[in-house]
Amino acid sequence: MRDSEQPRRSPALRIAWAFAAGLAFCLGAYLLIDYARPDGLISISFLILLPALVTAFIATVSDPSGERPRHFYTWQVPTRLLGAVIVASILFLREGTICIVMLAPIWLLSGAAGGALAHRFFATPPSDGEGLMRSSALLIVPVLAMQIEPLLPVPTEQLAVTRSVVVAADPATIWPLAQGVGEIAPGEGRWNVSQSLIRLPRPESARLIGTGVGAIREVRWQQRLNFQEVITGWQPARRIWWRFHFAGKDLARWGLQDRHLLPDGPAYRISEGGYTLQPLSKGHTRLTLTTRYLVRTPVNWYARLWGELFIGDVSNNVLAVIAARAEKAQGLAPPARASMSPPPVS
Length: 346
Description:
By secondary structure, the protein is of the alpha+beta class. The chain has helices at 2-36, 44-62, 70-93, 97-121, 130-137, 140-148, 171-179, 193-197, 248-257, 300-330, and strands at 156-167, 182-183, 203-209, 216-221, 225-235, 239-245, 268-279, 285-296. It folds into 2 domains: 2-151, no CATH class; 156-339, Alpha-D-Glucose-1,6-Bisphosphate, Chain A, domain 4. It contains 10 helices and 8 strands. The protein has an 8-stranded antiparallel sheet with strand order 1-8-7-6-5-4-3-2. α2 packs across α4 (97-121) and α2 packs antiparallel against α5. The longest helix is centred in the N-terminal third of the chain and has 35 residues, at 2-36.
């Protein structure tokens, strides 16, 4: 009985060893980067090369005779590795939800690509001892890349997220709400992926202190997240513009949520934003909220995708609160909410 069970048990032990070694390597790389250069976690080395080559390592060590099917390399290993990384991130590294959500898709795709390359070039029966050597050699690549990448220039982009809604109210009715909507009840706003599903904090209040350029908008979000918006543009019933200001004590609270994605950090900085009010026919108004931010990473294309989702959802939620209150004050029938989307590009 024991002899017959041995062939079944040995591959399982080999796979478990491969995953343990791969996960230990990932955690070691994380701790090293986080200690030496925290912004290095948002890099080609960590986001793309590390999951791809660790997946290739695990797959080739787990399948020394090259007998397993392609989906073992491109699906089973990447998903299991990602699951182990997520569990470790939650239990031991105390990472925030945003970091984990942003990490998952790119790690899964990179891991699948690494597994496909391993299946193509490494899934052949090697000579004795050769398989482990060439599999282990794969791990040298991300280590070398982590040393070289900090020496390369990092692209910087100024991006903007714009959302708008048609409100059944005139600009004069909307203008006080654009200055500061006041307290926001938990049931106000709209459902969205970022705040309803991923559970990003929602705004709780926004109030204006002063009038005109130089006035301060005090904004409070859930989970004790606070910041200020210094008014830099003021056209009554037409436009209000501000510059974001995050004080040190406020940034500390943001850091408790996601320390690698501060709103005023080295890789990502929210700079300015504001409302514009465009009068339409029949007493309606197009209300537009724009938020501009600076992103400085080797993967700005990826940061842009998440900026559109997260900032876009927050913007749509605030616009929904203002629209509902303005329409109630005006007493007009609300228009279709299909317009709550990015405005058409002219």
